[in-house]
Each structure stands twice: as C-alpha cells, then as structure tokens.
C-alpha cells in the first residue's frame, strides 16, 4: 500500500466500531452520573440542616429551615428540639431523594431521612437502638433550599 491509497476497509470498519463503542460508553456514563447526582444540592442542604440538629444548634437549624411566618421557633422546637416529636437528633442517614409521584413540574424534592437519638447511627443488628430510629420525609425547595414538611 502506498501513501496515496486509502486504508483498507477492515481498518475503517474497526475505527467506526471503536468510535460507536466509545460514544455509547460516554452516553451511558453521562446517564449514570446524572442519575447519581441529580438531587445532590438538595441532599447537601438536608445534610447541613441535620448536621445543625446533631450539633444541638437549633437556632441554626431553624434558620436553615427558612420558615414561613406561621412556623415560629416554638413550633420548630416542638418538632425538632431535644424534647420534640423528632428529637433529639443525635445521628441521621439520608435514605433517598426524589420527586413526588404524579407531580407535574415539582418545585422541590422529597428527601427521606432516618434519624436516631443515638450517636453513632445504630446498625440494623442493634435491635434495641434501631427501634427508636424514626423515618421522616422533608420537602426541600429547589430554588432556595428551604425546608417544609411534604405538601
């Protein structure tokens, strides 16, 4: 084969095959990464909120909640304070995040969190401590990362 001759058909087909395999792998990797990180900002906001509760900084947690005028600090403490319905929060584990089912163009994300009055978070084998673990779902607004209970 001289310099002016085109490469053989087999080489050309092999290159095309490699190109298609590479593009397919890139598309699949992009989809996997998108699925893994699509709710990352909302999960991070929830982590900051629960980290404040674990630290016992209910004032900071209330500030992160970004409450409306009707949800006073006393109401917040009745829910999240040391003696509140969900309290005391000593450890947590984010289970999942996602859009509500059947919702059209939701303005936020549902984040489901396991909260425990024990630190560190009890393993499933520790039945006595795991019994006191509660599962709570909170609503995180996408635009400003404010929290509320699900609509």
Describe it for me?
With 151 residues, the chain is of the alpha+beta class. The protein contains five helices and four strands; from the N terminus they run ααααββαββ. It is 42% helix and 18% strand. The protein folds into two domains: 9-38; 39-148, Nuclear Transport Factor 2, Chain: A (Roll). α2 (40-54) runs antiparallel to α3 (58-65). The chain has a four-stranded antiparallel β-sheet with strand order 1-2-3-4, with helices on one face. It starts with 8 loop residues before the first helix and ends with a strand. β3 and β4 form a beta hairpin.
The CATH topology label of the largest domain is Nuclear Transport Factor 2, Chain: A
Overall SS class: alpha+beta
Q: Tally the helices.
A: 5
Q: β content, as a range?
A: 15-25%
- Give a short account of the largest sheet: 4 strands, antiparallel
Count of individual domains: 2
Euclidean distance between termini CA atoms: 72 Å
Order of helices and strands: HHHHEEHEE
What is the topology, as strand order, of the major beta sheet?
1-2-3-4
Helix content: 40-55%
For the record, the CATH class of the largest domain is: Alpha Beta
Instruction: Give the second-level CATH assignment, the architecture of the largest domain.
Output: Roll
What is the overall shape? Answer: elongated
Low-confidence stretches: none
Q: Roughly what is the average pLDDT, rounded to an integer? A: 91
Q: Which radius of gyration do the C-alpha atoms yield? A: 24 Å
């Amino acid at each position: 084969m001289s310099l002016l001759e085109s490469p053989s058909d087999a080489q050309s087909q092999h290159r095309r095959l490699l190109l298609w395999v590479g593009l397919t792998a890139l598309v699949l990797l992009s989809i996997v990464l998108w699925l893994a990180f699509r709710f990352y900002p909302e999960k991070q906001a929830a982590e900051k909120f629960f980290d404040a509760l674990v630290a016992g900084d209910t004032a900071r947690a209330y500030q992160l909640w970004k409450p409306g005028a009707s949800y006073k600090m006393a109401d917040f403490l009745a829910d999240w304070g040391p003696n509140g319905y969900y309290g005391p929060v000593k450890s947590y584990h984010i289970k999942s995040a996602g859009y509500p089912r059947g919702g059209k163009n939701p303005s936020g994300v549902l984040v489901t969190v396991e909260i425990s009055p024990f630190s560190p978070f009890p393993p499933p084998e520790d039945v006595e401590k795991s019994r006191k673990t509660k599962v709570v779902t909170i609503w995180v607004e996408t635009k400003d990362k404010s929290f509320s209970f699900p609509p």
